[in-house]
Amino acid sequence: MNYSFFDFLTLVGSLGLFLFGMKMMSEALQRVAGSRMRNILSSMTSNRFLGVLTGFLVTAIIQSSSATTVMVVSFVNAGLLNLTQSIGVIMGANIGTTVTGWIISLLGFKVSISAYALPLIGVSLPLIFSKSTRRRTWGEFIIGFALLFMGLEALKTSVPNLKENPEILGFLQEYTNLGFGSVLLFLAIGTILTIIIQSSSATMALTFVMCNQGWIPFSLAAAMIMGENIGTTITANIAAAVGNTSAKRAAFVHFMFNMLGVIWMLIVFHPFVNTIDSIVTKHGGISPSADPAAIPIALSIFHTSFNVINVLLFVWFVPVFKTIVEKIIPLRDDDGEDFRLQYITTGLLSTPELSLFQARKEVQFFAKHTKKMFGFVRKLINTKDDAKFTKLFAKIEKYERISDEVEVEIANYISMINQAKLSDTGRRQVRSIMKLVSDLESIGDSNYNLARTINRMRERNIKFSPDILKKLELMFDLVEEALEIMIDNLNEDSENINFRKAQEIETEINSYRNQLKVEHLENLKNEVYKYDTGIIFNDLFSESEKLADYVINVSEALYEVHNS
Fold this sequence. Notes:
Low-confidence stretches: 107-111
Shape: elongated
Distance between the termini: 83 Å
Number of strands: 0
Helix content: over 70%
Structural class: mainly alpha
Number of helices: 21
Radius of gyration: 29 Å
Largest sheet: none
């Protein structure tokens, strides 16, 4: 069998197609999913057992645990699932993949989603050319989904075709008499084959061929199936390579969970395999150790029982998995991926007052990230490196998009609370939160407007003098102080709101904006700087003052609750 350099490039291209599809689908999900899909997924994964059931059902339907885990990674990357929810789905996917083994054993075929990839792209074409942004984004999502599966299929077909040339592995029969060493060897072979072929079911089919040829006994075939459980995790980790820290954590949990399962099984391997043999023969079947034809059914029993027991053992330790993976893959200091709903879940708490408390906590979290976003803007204006500038600008764009989604989700939650029986104070708090959430989102808009202005300045190669930069820094300092006061007021009880301090800094910002306006007009008149430079300068300090208006609105809304 020849494997040329062209074949290797085809393999690399297949990997690129897969990664591009993953990235395209994830980004489209962030734009179109909104609260509806998040609520559906949250309901389906609201506890670890429902998550396991969801993972099992999805994998059983689409016939690919790799595809399920890749989708889970993309959902985590898009913020539609959190890490805890994803762990349950991943565990369920491990059970769901055993259905594939039974289909291969009993029916001898496997459904291929990749066969529908091109028709899906055909369906999405009208959406791509639609005038509606939402429909275009759905089109991008469908194309990304199709490309992801085309990439997976291409990966499988662009590696050396071991399934049609099993004689390549015939030499392995020489290593079947090494005792427990043979178990470890064939475990490694199963892992490597699954990584290469990118299909656990293809590895299982290859294992069946090797058994039928009489090269390996049932016990070593079981070891290869265990190796497949490790190898199948590589697909999700490849997908997570272009994802955020949360996606990388979800993919690593998949690896860690499967690896721990293999470790405990190795400890009880021979007794467990003998038990499977006994179960088959006790129910009138032929021992897989005596007849290779009985191995497929026995392997399916082994695979299913192993994964079910694995889930039953570890489903109780989901919080422990979460803690471990967060320590192994820490969130970077400059990473904005923790900007997601943290306190609001899918439904209300037992009382409206508790639900209001939860909403206030979410608003406080929201406010901290508007200030963090402003910090990115300040950093952006001083960033010289093109790559770093592009990355930081993209992060600000992401924050602005998320702030829009957070506003909608908090507002929807508050609307649900408002339908319950509330005290007069509770109703005032509802009105206050609705108002200040809108202002917080407007702060995010202003931050994005500042970033776009700075980007326009960079594109036009406009350079500010040290004097202009100094004046802008002073304005930014005042705005940052206003944001800090706003956050302090949000964290206080309504009786302790320092509204006077908020008013004082707002007055100072307005006065300074007026001063800069007068100086700007004089500088244009005296040609101190060019007109296009002056326009950018004016846009920056004016937008900063506008941002501060939204900041004072938040403190006003809080103050009104106490005084109304």
